[in-house]
Specification:
Elements lengths: L2 H10 L7 E2 H7 L6 H9 L12 E2 L14 H10 L17
Parallel strand pairs: 1-2
Helix pairs in contact: 1-3, 2-3
């Protein structure tokens, strides 16, 4: 199984209404030092309807300005639809991390 495939498997495991960080996904995929490669994998997401890449955010709760499927505002809307709340700086609140 490739690193990208392990990333997709890890992202599929993020529960509805929760988020994870690039670093945590990298760790779950077998190499905690490959957080940037997680971003590349998500940018190449072959099945966005099955792999909820919008649930992956920076460890401080910031959203990616390079979100591949419509930009930061689309990512935020998808997260809000799942009940995820943001702080006054626009970051995902810590209680929503797995």
């Amino acid at each position: 199984m490739t690193f990208f495939e392990r990333v997709y498997r890890a992202v599929k495991r993020i529960p509805y209404g929760k988020v994870s960080s690039y670093g945590k996904v990298a760790e779950a995929a077998g190499n905690k030092r490959m957080a940037r490669q997680v971003g590349w994998a998500l940018h190449s997401n072959p099945a966005p309807e099955e792999i909820p890449c919008y649930r992956v955010v920076f460890k401080d709760g910031r959203l990616s300005s390079a979100f591949a499927f419509g930009g930061e505002s689309v990512q935020r809307a998808l997260l809000e639809k799942e009940g995820i709340k943001f702080d006054e700086k626009g970051r995902v609140k810590p209680c929503f991390f797995v």
